[in-house]
Every structure is written in structure tokens, then in C-alpha cells.
Description:
The complex is a heterotrimer. Chain A is built from 16 helices and no strands. By secondary structure, chain A is mainly α. The radius of gyration of chain A is 25 Å and the shape is flat. Mean pLDDT of chain A is 88; it is low at 1-10. Chain B starts with a helix and ends in a 6-residue tail after the last helix. The radius of gyration of chain B is 26 Å and the shape is globular. In chain B, helix 5 packs across helix 15 (356-366). Helices cover 69% and strands 0% of the residues of chain C. Chain C has 18 helices and no strands. The two termini of chain C are 14 Å apart. Chains A and C meet through helix 1, helix 2, helix 3, helix 6 and helix 7 of A and helix 2, helix 3, helix 6, helix 7 and helix 8 of C.
Amino acid sequence: MKISRQGTAAAPVPKQMQRSKLRREIARHRSVYVLALIPLIYYIIFKYVPIWNSQIAFKDFMAIDGVLGSPWIGLENFRTFINSFYFWSLIRNTVMYSVGKLLISLPLSVILAIAIYECTRPGLRKVVQTLAYLPHFLSWVIMYGILLALLAPGDGVFNDVIELCGGKAVDFLSNTKTFPWVVLISDAWKEMGWSAIIFIAALMGIDVSLFEAAMVEGANSWQRVRYITLPAIAPVIVTVLILKLGTILDAGFNQIFMLYSPQVYAVGDIIDTWVYRQGLLEFEFGLATAVGLFKGVFGMFLVLFANWLSRKLTDSSLF
Amino acid sequence: MKALRNIMIAMLIALAVLPLAAGGSKEAAAASGDGPVTIELWFGAAMTEAGMVPDDWVGYDIIRDKLGIDLKLTMLPSNESDQDVKIQAAGAGNALPDIFMVRRPVLVNLVKQGLVSPVDDCFDKMPHRTELLYDKDAKAHATVNGHIYGFPSPGMIVRNEGLLVRKDWLDKLGLSVPTTTEEFLEVARAFTFEDPDGNGVNDTYGYGAFIEIESNLKGYPGSRLWPIMGAFGVEGLWSLKSGEEGLNIYKPEFYDFMVFLKGMCDEGIIDPNWLSYKKDDFRAAWKQGRFGMMYEQNAAYAATSNYAPFDKNFPDGEWIVIDAIKGPEGKAAIGAYDMNYRIYAVSRKAADAGKLDKICELLEWMSSDEGYYLLGWGVEGVNYVLDEDGIPVAGDLGDMAFTGSKGQVYTQLRNLVFYNGDVELASRYPTYITEVSKKEMSALKTLREMQAMTWTNAIGSGNLPTPNADVKRFYEQTLGEFLTGARPLNEGTWQEFIDGFNAIGGKAWNDEGVAYMTENGLLHD
Amino acid sequence: MAVKVQKHLKPQIQNKKVKLTAADHVFNICVNAFMVFILIAIIIPVWSTVTLSFRPADFLGTNLEGMFLPPWDWSTDAYTALLGNDGFLDAFLNSFKILIGGVACALILTVPMAYVLSVQSLPGRKIINMIVIIPYVFNVGMIPAYLLVKDIGLIGHLPAVFLPGAISTYNCIIMRQFFVGIPNELKESARIDGCTELQVLFRIILPLSKAIVMTIGLYYGVSFWNDFFNAMLYLNDNYPLPILLRNILLASGMNEYVEVSAFGNAPVNAIKAASVFMSAIPMVIAYPFIQKYFTKGTLLGSVKG
């Protein structure tokens, strides 16, 4: 495909011909457009009507008057959010958690996928592959109970060990220094196996003859992972990475909401928990929607940037 | 492949038809609106997790035949914030049901949006129910800007919590019941360091708690610390006593309390897990004998299934309800109390459709003898029998009894009729003999003991304005950091906290609250 | 040879001629150590939840002690109570309808969309790409979506739970990435043979993408099966399982005001733990089937054949 595109760009063609070529291309892809029709209609109804409705971000939304009838108030809702006393703290915490999760959970799930792929013991491989996704289903309510059993200052397993070694018990869940690690590690713990599934699927597409060729040339296992396996699944990793950047200001509401407490608001409160307390529970729907748009602008910028960067560096990109 | 494509095509058709089918059934429902009036009710179930009122419930027929009402029930989610979200979303879509249960802060928002109807005139149309359920305080709880927006029926019984101490531990260590903060500390130290359970391991603590806060009555660090806060006169979020009205946080004694509590944390005589516990963990902890003093609710402590694990673990164990401890200045209180209500609001849409009278008729019927027993306990002889005192009991009705696994779903609506009358309490909290230690227990007796202790009147707290999220966060976060040690606690930092709180909007919140108290006559001596 | 390669995951094991170097041994040790570490990390929460769900009512120890309770002391009270709950069967049926309807709709919509995005020569592809990516980034939240569902009359009907999420852009783009990864020669040669795009999709792309289509189907299935938020907002009397389970999980005050519990004698925590496994049902059933398609070198075999 690349070649043909470059071909059209290289040779300057008269406008007339360009247009007729375009027409021919469109005609050739007629059935593709037909295929796109239903999903696009779906997108317009289920994704773009809500975006149209999101004009309430610029309005003093009154339910009785509906979306169109509510009076415009300009950027008032955005101002409320940006002028919030904790605005910077919210942004900092949110970015800290989402970047932290990208740096910890994403590499771990790639490593797990490769380990499952490379494992030489079929029994171990099978057991891990079959069980790895299970923690994903333990809701955070249950996970909290498990974390408490491990981390509680009075009788948590970790603190028992610390005290045995002569240390002083740490209240991991109420300490502003340890809390972010609890969030990041427990997220990796719970979601790693689940996110690895997609990479395992990607690994299945690798042409195994490449490995044989590499072995003949004397490459060891590390080199094979480095030069065959990773490049082969790089497009999928990059895709996941770019997509996650698009939602960089979502840091995992359910998890934080279950784990945090007033003692650790300083490092625990994220945009979504703030919106929940200030917007959704207080009927400030214009505000909640405004924050959604704010996050979107941020995410859009990052996606476009990451996409551009990825095209420059790896020649694979989303669009 | 061909088969796969056929399947795809079939699915595509199904997809196109689905929304049509959905729309179709809706029209059918609307068309049958000729006969009885349809009333849609979103209710707070007595036990949401038990399941919906079954379709074969006799109540539906009685209500249709007698009142000409087609009752459509929807059970609200079990936790409050889910309820708030569901109701506000329906509000935003102007799709509220005819009558629905709602908390006051949400109700105030809905009133601002013009989505609920005032019901001032309705009380005269249901004299019997009004007499039983809706007194002056109740109406005040549903009043916004001078109009009553909804029917506030009584919720939980008030003053149903108390300070409990392990009597067996006191006896073993030769201590007497603490009456002052000094003695309280001594007992707490002894419970922590002198091995009160005699197992040779240092695994007990003096006091147990968890953070239980709520928007109006219970400010951080929450009601589980109230007996200690009471000794300093700072129990409850607001003080409604004339002369001291306003947020308790402004009293200098609040600082003294914080120093006292921080001291307990540093000394290790309060269960160090208290900051991490949620309600269930706390309750599991006292059943395992982790601490010897706590603040707990009567039924959570004394009801059969709640006390049973403790009874098995510690057949010789015994908790007693004690009175509030006195602080340095002689102050004492178990806690602050406000009335609890469940407001049932009527949507403006329903009022506009002329359904208000029918709704009154329905509510009045619910409080008639027929409705009261049917909603409260089910059908006599099937779900309950009356004992010699006229109290509904399960008897030998088995699964179908109102306490049984099949019968309990028939009484999901009971919160709509209960008003904490004597019959209800006797039926709800029977006296029983514990399985292992053969003690006579009664959550009702415990309740009466708890109610007789020293309490602070904070009636009307629930009607006061709520702060915005930033003010609330500042308040809770800073106090929390004082306790964990992330922020040093001394006169200077305390003053900084108060100044910061005032600057972020705490002062405005306080003034707004005081103004409301004064205007609505909530202050007392 | 090709068959053998598919059955085993480590080519050099068959290829005895290749000698393992020291680096290979270190590699294998690292991989296995990592796998064992992961296994332990997974088993702790899963096992503690399993044992919690089988905890008998008269067990008095802590959670930690409970993890070592021998199986002959286990009790199935929690499961019998949960399955015997009046609301359970109805909720399960509703959930099942949502699962089937949801996955069918999702795949019917997502597969063509992903394919369209993967046709790189398509004029206007960039525009379609933007149409897809914008709503993903601008997640405008609860109320704009609620207003839509209300306007098209879906409130109270099961499709309200899955239609708003019937295309997840995330899944769609992941799937597209897999489609793009299929060698171009295959698609081109099919086109030269006169296949229409629809035929290319059905004859070339889908047979080569079973693993990813199944995986994405699974992702959808799990998300619909466990969705409580849409169900809570949009449904009234036909609640699915997640609502029931959430009511159980968050019903902290069970037994508080009355002398009965919704679940007879089973301990509350056991019920909560048991309810967790209900949310994993579709996954536990479907994953082994899907794993069958997770075999190395599937693509290679197809290209050759």
C-alpha cells in the first residue's frame, strides 16, 4: 500500500487526472464504504449525539428546559473547575497515576505475555495462562479486604514481617508516601494478566520460521526476544500506548474511590473523584460535562502528538 | 464461511429490529392507561439484596381493586450515592417517576431545578398517616424555601448507638467503669498492655473505631469517636446550642480533642487499623476481641446473628453500655443526634398529570391497619402470626415467614409504613437466649439503655447547607493529616488550618449554616 | 514440522541440533522465575477469595487463618444461598440476554469498522479515523449519554445497557491493528483475483484473525456482563446480575435493623466472595475455548496453506 501512495505523491499529475483517479479509487472501494455505513450511522447516533448534548458544558443546564432551552453561560463551568482550590493537585495526582500505571502495568503485562510465550515448562505456562486474568474479576471491594489483610498497621502480614525485622509498622493505606505505591502496585497486580491477553494474541501472529532462522545464525534467547518478538508486537504495544494516552486524565475511578480516605486526599484525589463529589452528587452536570471536555482536549493533543511521534520513530501509527 | 456470513446477516437484522421491539413494548404499556391510574414508585427496599417484591404479591391486586391504582415498583440501589446518581440522572432527563425516595441534599437540588412538586396541601388529605408519621420536625426536614417538597417518614431510631466496654476485661484487671477522660486513658492503656484476654500475646487495644462521616451530622473523624469528642464538647459537625452555634471545628476544645486523640494514636492504645477499617472490618474486629471499648449501634451489637460470633469466640465475654465520660471541663456526651427521615418526593410531572390525590390515597391506605400489616409483615397466617401480645412473629411458618428466605421479599416496602412504634420494635428486636453462653439478650433492651445516656441535641443538622467539595476536602484532609502525623499538630499549625479553612470558603459555609439555624428556629439552650 | 511447531511453544526443544548457550539458560531461568513469581502473586488474592467464599458460618479466625482452612471444613452455604435467592435467576437471565445481544451487536459493528480502518488505500480513511477517535477521547460523561438513551426510548429496556458501548473505540482500533498486521500480499492477491472488499474480509481477514476476534468478543462480553453503571441508570425492574451483586457487596449494614438476613445462615463475607465468582462466569467458560486459537504460528500455517 505504501508503495502505491508514494507513487502518487512522487509524480506530479494534472488536476483533472488526479480527480478522475480519486473517483476511480472511490469506485473501487465502493463496497468498503457500504461496509462502513452501519457502523458510521451507529457512531453518529450513539457517540455524536452525546457530544452534541455536551453543549450543556457551556450552559446553565436546567432539566426542565432541556439541552437546547438552557441558557448559555459561556466558559463559567470551565472556570469553576480551573479555579478550584485543588485544581493543580488534582491534575498532578491524575497524571501521576495514569503515567505510573503506563510505566508499571503496561511493561509488566508485555513481559508477562512474552514469558508465557517463551516458557519452557508447559505445565507452568498453562496454569499461569489460565489463572492470570482472574484477579481482574475481584472487585475493588474485595481487593480492599485483601490489601487490608496484607498492609494493615496492626496485624497486616507486611507489617508483621517489618516488625519481626525490627522495623516500625507503617500504615500503608493512610500514609501519603506509601499510598501512591499501593495504588500503582495493586493496579498492576489486578490488571496485569487481563491486559496481557491482547499481547498474547499478538504474539500468536509471529512467523515461527524467523526463530529457526535466527537460531541457525546463532542468536540466543535474549537476542531473539530483542530482535524478533518485541518488534513483531511493537505495533500493538504502540497502539495500546497511544490509546491509553488519549485517556491520560482517567486514572481509574473505581480503584481510587475504594482505596482513598481523607488522610491521603493530598495524593489520592483525582479529577474523576472530584467530579463525582462536586459534579454528579451535586447536580452540577454542566460542570461534570465541562471537565469531560477538558480531559478530551488534553487527550486529543496527546494522541495526535504520540501518533505523530510514533510515525516518525517507528513508522507505525494509528492514523 | 458462508454459514458465518449468514449468521452475520441474521445478527444484523436482529440488531436493526431490537430498538424497534423496545419502542414497541413501550407504546403498548402506555396504551393500557385507560383503567386504573399508573403510579410509578421508586422505593428504598428494606433489604435490597434479598430481591424484588414478587409479581404474585397480593398487595398489587388490593391496591388496584380498592384504590384504582396500578402500582409499578422499582427498587433503588442499596447504597446512598448510587441512589443519588440514579435519581439525579433521571432528573436531568426529566424522567423522574411519580414518587420516589430521596435524600434531602438531592431533594434541594431537584427543587432548584423545578422537578419536584410541593405537597403542602396533601397532609390534610391523609389525616391518619400524618398523625402517625409527619410531625413538625419531619415536615421541616422536607421544607425548602418555605414549601414542603415530599413526605418525610421516620428513618432509623434516634440515639440508637452507645459506648460499650468489655466488662469481663474490666473485672479481670480489677478496673472500674471509666467516668472521666483520665480513667478512660487508664482503662485503654490497661486493655492494651496488660493482656486483658489472658492469651499471653500483646494483641489487644483499648479503643476501636473507623472513620464514619456523613454530610451533615458526622464531621471528620466521625461518629465512632463521639464519646471522646463529647468529653470536649465538640461531638457532631454543627453545634446548635445558642451561644456556641456554628461549626464545632471553631471551638478551641476541638484542638484539645485532636491533641488527646493524637496522643492515643501515638501511644498505640487505639487500634492502629482504625484509619483503614471500613464498617465491616471494624465489626469483624470486635467480634475477634481486638479491643475493649467502642461506639456501636444497638442491633449491630445485640441482634441475634450479629452477636452470635462474639458469643462463640468469647462465651465469658460481656459488653456493657456505659454513660458518657467527663472531660477536663466536665463536659460529657455519647454523641449528637438528629432525626432521620426518608423523604418520598412527588415529581412535578406526576403532579401536573393530576396524580397527587391518588398518591395521597395510596399513602393513607398504606398507613391503615390493612396496609400497615400487609406492607410491614405480609399476610397473616402466611407470613406472620400474632403472639399473645399482638406482636407479629414468625411462629412456625418457615421459609414463608417475614423473616424467612421466601417471605422476606413480601415486606420490602415496610419502610414506607414503619414509624418505630412499639409493635414494630417488639417484633424487630425480640428477646432471645444466646447459643453458647446462654445469656439473655435483647437489642430492644440495649436500645433503651443507650437512649437513656447523655446525648446532645442537634436536631435540624440534617437540614443545614452542605459545603462544596473543596471545603469538605480541606476540612477532612487536614484533620486526617494531623492524625497520621503528616502535618505536625500544635497551636501554630492549628491556627494555620483554621485560617486556611476560612479562606477557602469555610467561613462562608459556617455563616450560611448559622443564618439557617437562626431563621428556622433550630437553636436551643 | 509445521504441526509440531504449533503444538510446542519452544522451537529449540524440537530442534535438538541447536545447542543452548549460557545466555539461553539464564533466559530460561529468568522466564521461569518470573512465571513462578506471577503465579504466587495471582494465587494469593484468588485463593483468599475462594476460601472466603467457602467459609463456614462458625469459623471464627482471621482471614489469614481462613486461607489455610482444610477443604473438608468448607461450607457451600454461600453458594446455595446465592443461587437460591429469589432475584438471582431473573437477574441471571437478564444478564445472559445482555451478554448475547451485546456481544452480537458489538462484533457486527466493530469488525466492519475495524476492517474499514485497516484498508490503507481507502480515500477518506483519515476522516473516518477522526470520526472514530474523537468520541473516544471526548468521553463526555453520564448526562449527555443519558439524554440520548432517553430520547431514543430505551430507558427500562435491556439494549440500553449494551448499545451505548456496542463499539468500543479502544477495542476497534486494537482489532484494526491486527488486521493491518496481516500481510498485504494476501489481500492484494485476493483483490487481483476479483474479490470484493466484503469477500476479502470474510475469506482472508476473518479466518486469519480468529484469535483477536474472539479476544475482543471476550473483552466485550466481560464488560457487558459486569456493567452495573448503565444498568443502574437505565433499567428499572429488570436488573441484571451486577446490580444484585453490587447490592450484596455494598450492603454493609446487612442484619442491622432486623433479625433476619437475606441469605439465611451463610456469613456475609462468604456471600460477598461467592458473588465475585459470578462475575467471572463468562470468562471462565469462554477462555479455554479461546485459548485453543492461541497457538503459535497460526498465521504462518495459513499463508503456506
